[in-house]
Write a structure and sequence with these properties.
The chain has 10 helices and 9 strands.
Length: 261
Amino acid sequence: MIIDPAVMGYYERGGELTRLRQGRGRLEYWRTRDVLRRVLPPAPARVLDVGGGTGAHAEWLAAEGYDVELVDPVPMHVEEAGKLPGVRARLGDARALPVPGGEADAVLLLGPLYHLPDRADRVRALAEARRAVRPGGVVAAAVISRYAALHDSVYLGGLLLEERRKVEYGTLETGVIISGREGGFRGYGHHPDEILGEFTDAGLPEPRRYGVEGAFWLYGDVNDWLDDEGRRELLLDAARRLECEPSLLGVSGHLLAVSPA
């Protein structure tokens, strides 16, 4: 496995232990779960969770009766995910999956495409997902929106700094995301239409695209909505009604692309 040392260092600090479980990151978690529950084959289907981190999604999938195997390049992630009931975890690279072909009912790529700035590597990861899934199975891949870094910079106030403006405006041109914090997140942001050609070149049918958070992740009181179960369900329902609207895809922090293999 050849992993960008900056990416490995970022994840080894343990941010994935809490990112989807605290704060507004919970909106990404709840919405991703909401979409997956509708597009995955029913349990006990076999799900390969590639780049699954510490198992935030593998955990609920296993609890709902899925046969879950998680593959991730970060040793700490594999160790933590392996502690979850019903989850098998091993080291591996999305571009060369250590699994036989055609045995999974669904393959999830809920992180790998974030960290592959070269298009050829992203297509290779998608092609590996296609190889690993059975005919008629499901491939679901998450991407970060090309516009998410700029939106986040306004939300957090970073855009007030000239050096951050240069970085965020550069992301609009290149897709390369560089956090302003020392040792922070480094990744790649997709234009909403970009993923269509990557799926095609990987031999997958054109995917259906879902805006995960919509514009709601930018609302200052989003945590209040997520903290209250009743309000959270209203928020998820509102997001569900807008999730495939083409004119709103780019405002979402993340997109989920789903295709039958």
